[in-house]
Structure formats: C-alpha cells, structure tokens
Amino acid sequence: MQEKNPFLSKTLFLKGLKCKKLLYLSKYYPNLKHEVSSRTEELFETGNEVNALAKKLFQKGREIPSNETREKQIELTLSFLKEGVENIYEASFFLDSIFVRTDILHKGKKGWNIYEVKSTTGLKDEHIYDIALQYYVVKGCGFDIESANLVHINPDYIRWGELEIEKLLTIKDLTEKIIDSQKKIKEKIEIFKEVLKGEMPEVDIGGHCFENYTCEFRNYCWKNIPENSILRIEAHWMDRFELYKKGILVLEDLNQEEFEGNSKMFIDAYIGKKVIFNKKNIKEFLESLWYPMAFLDFETFSYAIPLYDGTKPYQQIPFQYSLYIIYSRDSEPEHFNYIAPPRTDPRKELTEKLLREIPLEACVIVYNEKFEKRIINELSEFLPEHREKLLLINNNVRDLMLPFKRKDYYHWEMLGSHSLKKVLPAVIPEMSYEEMDIKNGEMAMSAYFKMCKSNSPEEIAKIRDSLIHYCSLDTLAMVKILKKLQELTEN
Ligand code: SF4
C-alpha cells in the first residue's frame, strides 16, 4: 500500500462519488480489483474511438501523450498554451493535489472551451461532476473559461455512406450547470481528501455497488455473502438491499405474510419447493401453435458508431441465427444456422439464407417476441425486396415466454424470473448454460467482436464454434421446453 496522501485524479474523484470505500480501495489496494470483463474493455475502447472522432471536429490540435509522467504532461500543456496552440487534446492540469486531463481544450474569443467526450447517447449526472471538476481545476490554475461542454452520441443519426462526424456527435453546452455546481465540487474534494487521509471507510454493500456499473471490488466486499443469499438474486419483485438492511440474508428468512401477489407466490413456491402448472391455459397456448414449427433465435451486436448504411448508433445488428424446424408432431427437428463472416455487413446474407430455410407458413416460435420482431422489422425496412416475406414471418411469431411470464408454469427454482436462462434448467434439468464458454447474449456479442478483430484462423474457428453452440442451445431449449409442455398437458 502506498503512503497516504490526498492526491486525487479525475478517475478517483468519480469513484468517490459512487462509494467512498471504492475511492479508498482504488487508490491504496488496486490489487484487490477483480478482473475486468471483456465487455468493460470493449466499452473502454469504444470510448477511445469516439474520443478520436470528436478530435476531428477540432482540427490541427496537439496531443499530450498519456504515457508521459504527470509532471511532463503538465509541462507540455503549459508550453502548448504559451505557443498559442488552439486545440489541445488531453490538456493536463494540477491544482491543490488534483490532477485532471480535458479531452479537448479549444481556444475561444473570450477564453478556453472544455469538451468532455462520452460514448453515451445523452447527459448523465456523473458527466456534470466530471466536467465540473475539470472546470474547477483549469479555472483554479488561472485560465479563463468560455464554456464547458459535453460531446455525446446523437442517437437519431442514421448513417448513409461516409460517416458524418458532425451529425453523429452532439455538443451540449453545460456552462451554467457547471458554474452552479462549483460549490458542491469543492465540498466533495474536501470530503474525499479526508477519506484518503484516514482509515478504510466502513461502507456496507448496497444498490450503489451496481449503480451505473458493477463495482470492480465487488468480489472483495461481497466475499462473506453466502451463495444462497437473497443479495445474489436479481429479482424485481423484492428490494433485496432493503431486506438485507433488516437482517434478512436468505429467502427462507422471509415472512411471506409481508408480501402479496406474485411475490408471495414466489416465496411460498421456493420454501415449499413447488411447481405451479395451469393445464388449461397451457393447453390453450399450445393449441394456438401449428406445424411446421420454426424455432428461431438471433444474436446481435450493437456499436456506438454505426458501421453500415441505414443504421443508427447502438442499433442491434443480427450477426447470427439458429433455426430448428419441426414439420410434424412426430418428426425430428432439423437444424440450420448462420453466422456472419468477420467484418462484413451481415444483414443481406443472413436474411436471404433465413428466407431460403424457413417455411413461410411456419409458426415461428421465439422466446421474448419483442426482440426478434424488432430485428425482423428492421431487416424489412433495410431490404424492401424481402419486406413482404419478412413481415409474414413476423405475423406468424408466437412467444414461448408467454406461459412462463403468466406463471401458467412456475417452478420454485425460477425465483420469480421467466428468462430462458432460468426457465431451461428448471424445466429441463439436464440442460443448462453453466458449462458453456458463452453463457448469455452479452458474451456472444463480445465473442463476435473478438472474432472480427482476430487474424488467427484457429481463434476465429474456435469462437465460431462457441457461438454456434450457444445460439443453438437457445433454440434447442425452446424445442425441448415445448415438447415438455406438450407431454405435461397430455397426461
Ligand atoms: S463493492 Fe460496493 S461497497 Fe465495496 S467498494 Fe464497491 S461500491 Fe463500495
């Protein structure tokens, strides 16, 4: 552990806003952090790419290299300022133990303009603090500031042809808000410096551990929370942190009488290890389906900077599907799948292959229809030549999630959830996502990005296999669950 001192960087300041213990741990015990997920790394890289684009709006700037020492960065900034450089990227300042870097510092008529670049589609509270701290330090160093701004992604931008950076990025002038928050910034700085001079603050775990992002010290702070604790159950039907504050750690400790409706049922089912089965409703649902049945699941990626024509920032682009077709009650399912080659616009090829494979009169079974229907709709808008057929597919979509969402089938192990990840192991115990390399959609997206960046044929082949395995399990899960419901309603 380094010697205690009040030094604060902008990153540390922002961590202090989330949790004082996080500030302390980040500064003095960084080795206790858990490994950063590939998704976090991607978000970081995206931030850097958006930052690089924003710099193009302020041409001919000079950059302060981040690999220099802080002293050198400050010295270089001062020399650029003296030289009259009009745009400085990563300008660095130090005031009263606080070090900040501004993404872009632009010289205006009445002073300097601060631009903080974010890959979000709008303003968040933490951005105000972020920019306000920069304002506090730069102004405190004796520089006049004309404006303080956020540069963020414009969610309505649609790409056609070359990327239009000035349309992709929106500049929001926050000067007034930033000036108003200066008193608060000063107070926070004082508080955080005191924290850094003292012993590790005692902060209990809570909802703040997940606010905006999952805290990197979660494994450390949560090490004594048992595996079966309610704190490890992500359930919207109970306020797990409120219950924890009341001393309740496991579901068995809950008093059912204090709950009503579904929540009461979830607790009752869990304690009694019950399975709820509404045969009439499930039968009705099954009777609304027909053969051939096509079980369909897409995997998608989304990215801040639209890569293809007709797409918006963060639009979900399908890069993979898995399709099982059952022609009649007694026939075996036939499997088809598609996965886009790396670094190509997958939409046309994916659509045309799907349309060759899926019988147009099929009952299309998905899990959570909102998602698949939206993807098909967006494909139909982009590919008008296939619009009619795609809309026909959408009309024939039936949602297998429905009986689980309505609790027509509820297994105590679902813990109030109707997600496929919870439903599958409860209904078909021999199937689960636990042992797989890719366990959810977010991991599938990360794997796809990794595959796009890779130049190793072996690595690409390995990722492809994992992706195919994952997406196939999602659709095979639907096939098995449906079969199970059919069997249960027959007895
Ligand atoms: S895990 Fe929670 S309590 Fe621990 S440092 Fe992070 S935010 Fe604070």
> What is the CATH first-level class name of the largest domain?
Alpha Beta
Structural class by sheet pairing and helices: alpha/beta
Largest sheet, strands/sense/barrel: 7 strands, mixed
Which fold name fills CATH's third level, the topology of the largest domain?
Nucleotidyltransferase, domain 5
Low-confidence stretches: none
Termini separation comes to 66 Å
Domain tally: 2
Total count of helical runs of at least 4 residues = 19
Query: What helical percentage do the residues reach?
Result: 40-55%
Round the mean pLDDT to the nearest integer and report it: 94
Give the second-level CATH assignment, the architecture of the largest domain.
2-Layer Sandwich
Hetero groups: iron/sulfur cluster
What does this entry look like structurally?
This protein has 491 residues and is an alpha/beta fold. The chain folds into two domains: 8-197, Lambda Exonuclease, Chain A (Alpha-Beta Complex), CATH 3.90.320; 280-490, Nucleotidyltransferase, domain 5. 44% of the residues lie in helices and 16% in strands. It contains 19 helices and 14 strands. Strands 1, 2, 3, 4, 5, 6 and 7 form a seven-stranded mixed sheet that branches. A five-stranded mixed sheet has the order 11-10-9-12-13, with helices on both faces. Strands 8-14 form a two-stranded antiparallel ribbon. Strand 5 (112-117), helix 5 and strand 6 (145-153) form a beta-alpha-beta unit. The radius of gyration is 27 Å and the shape is globular. The model has no long low-confidence stretch (mean pLDDT 94). Iron/sulfur cluster binds next to helix 2 and helix 9.
